[in-house]
Structure formats: C-alpha cells, structure tokens
Amino acid sequence: MTENEIGKIVVDTALAVHRELGPGLLESVYEIVLAYELQQRGLHVNRQVPIPIRYKDMIFNEAFRGDLVIEEKVILELKSVEQRVRLIRNRFKHTYG
Fold first, then answer.
1. What average pLDDT does range 11-36 have in this prediction?
2. pLDDT tens profile 39-60
3. What does the alpha-carbon distance between residue 27 and residue 30 come to, in Å, rounded to a whole number?
4. 50: nearest Cα among 40, 59, 42
5. What integer pLDDT is reported at residue 75 of this predicted model?
C-alpha cells in the first residue's frame, strides 16, 4: 500500500471519527479512537513512537514522538482545537473535499 493510499484511508477515517465525537476533546481521545478505527480497517498502527533524527554526527534518539505511525510509512501528528477555524476548514475542504 502506498503512502497516498494510506493517507486517503487516514483522512476518511479521521473525518468519520470527528463526525462521531465532535470537536473539543483531548488529543489523546482522538488518538486512541483513530488508532482503533485504523486498525479496524486493517492497518498496522503504533502510538507515541519515538522518531530519531540525525544531524551530522549527532543522533537525537527521541527528537519527537509521532502520535501515530501507520504501516511504518505515514507519521501522523494530531492536533485538537475547541472549534474549527473557518480558514482551516476551507483549506481542508479544498485539499481533500
């Protein structure tokens, strides 16, 4: 499965989760539910994965944590807001709508 195919499943699933739960919950709630739903769709999902970064001869073993890593190909960083911002909603509709 390609990154684009995974991405389509992720976007479709995230929209379904958002429609069910609505806005305003903690990111951890969306993370747990989205991971569950993606697994139900047959994807391999890991949560809170440390992502190392190499800079010259330095290695940062836990430079950041990916909220979800899907099929070891797609890193997903979740953000939660209390209300959707019109600009973000319009951009999202234009990109994925």
1. 92
2. 999 999 999 999 889 999 999 8
3. 5
4. 59
5. 93
> Could you tell me the residue range of the domain that residue 26 belongs to?
3-96
Angle at 38 between CA 89 and CA 49, to 5 degrees: 90
Q: How many domains does the chain have?
A: 1
| CA angle, 23 then 51 then 83, to 5° | 10
- Unique residue bearing structure tokens 């001869």: 57
* DSSP one-letter string for 6-73: HHHHHHHHHHHHHHHH-S-S-HHHHHHHHHHHHHHTT--EEEEEEEEEEETTEEEEEEEEEEEEETTT
For residue 9, the model assigns a pLDDT of 96
Which amino acid is residue 34, in one-letter code?
Answer: L
Q: Which two tokens stand for residue 94?
A: 């234009």
d(CA 62, CA 58): 12
Instruction: Determine the pLDDT at residue 61.
Output: 87
